[in-house]
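question for whoever is on the cluster today: can someone run the full assembly for these? two chains, 458 residues total. i dont have access anymore since they changed the login thing
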Amino acid sequence: MFELDYFVDILPRLFAAALINVQLALIIAICALVSAIGLTILRVQKIAVLNMAINLVMSFVRGTPLLVQIFLCYYVLPSIGIDLGPITAGLLAITLNSTVFIAETMRGGLQTMDPGQVEAATALGLRAHLIWGKIIVPQLILRIVPMLVNEFTVIIKGTALLSVITVVEVMRAAQQLASSSFRPFESMLGAGLVFLVVNGVFILAGMRLESGMRERIG
Amino acid sequence: MSKFDPWLIVEYAPHLALGAWRTIYIVVAAFLLGYAFGIVLALLSFLPGRLPRTLLTIYSVCLRSIPFIIALFIIYYGLPFFGVRLPTIYVAIVSLAVYKSAYYAEAIRGAIVALPRGQFESARAVGMSPAQAFRHVIAPQILRGLIPPSTNLTLMLIKESSVLSSIAVAELTYQGLIMQGNTYAALEVFTAVSAVYWALCSMTAWLAHRLEARSNAPQAAAIQRNRIAARYLSFERVGK
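^ ran it for u. tokens below:
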């Protein structure tokens, strides 16, 4: 039988644990956005060797599961002398993953920019850092807002994987509740509900933005 | 600090190969099942009235909000709760398929909606039979819009299958974790495991790339022709 009382009882504790997920996700999102901008500017410098290395790393990150990347940061880094705690290792893994996906979208975004604006800015004698800061980056970010919202929901979902390296967030909290109550189904359903509430808002916003964008372009 | 021991990977290669094979098996089965499910959901969403579309949106918001690991455990513990007992590998396939079906459905719906109005009627008007109109006008356009998102979703599917290790499905990541438990050689284990995933994803992406007609070429070419713009908007050096 489904224990409704138990289900209602654990929700406050799961929502409290969700604060960890949201905090981690916010830190990751900010770090990833900043490093993706940096990476994009670096790639535009057209240093052949560096771009080849960046492409290789990006291909690796895009071609391996986030879970394996989390294991790489948590289990493998210590064996080469970098011992991070579970939270730092998890932050590093998801940030790296997210940086790569945002940077890849920025590459696509650059191709939709109007060449005339860069020409005009160059003709006016603007310095490179101003062309980036005042012209390209703001428009680039505006253009990929739907993707960024989408990526934020992916980051939030990613934080649930940190349960496997002992970070006590929603998933781990639900597992602990399940093992003390022997009610795994209700506990997991509770965890699912928490994510639905926390993440659903962003998902809906992302879908709206995406279809709005498509209508404006198409 | 430990040294990298390639022989360890050779020693465990049969286990890794078995894990890789099971990952492929699960991914192919989940892809077929999930895509079929996605097609049905997408077509149903075109039924008259607002309700079918709204239901699809609710379904996909629910699945997109929840991490796969939680959806997996809900299904894993939920099925016995309703008296359904399946071998774990089928639970794995069904979970992946159901989880991805929402994404596939949205992609398929998107590709159909993106068709310009009146394509079918125009094709009929120039004398094509309905079958010809579908074969030569409708299908190529749907496919062009469908292949890129489907590729991305399928790559996600391959990667998400690693989460199945947490319900002890003996796929690639699980084999890696077992190997790590036996040897404590994290470096070798995860190097090997990630190399196999990388290869699987690269092959899938390559296959999809061959299927896909290049679509976004004109704008990129315009940027490449404009040397000043290319200085800021492109990663490749412009010739001459």
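summary bc i know u wont read the tokens: The longest helix of chain A spans residues 4-44. DSSP finds nine helices and no strands in chain A.
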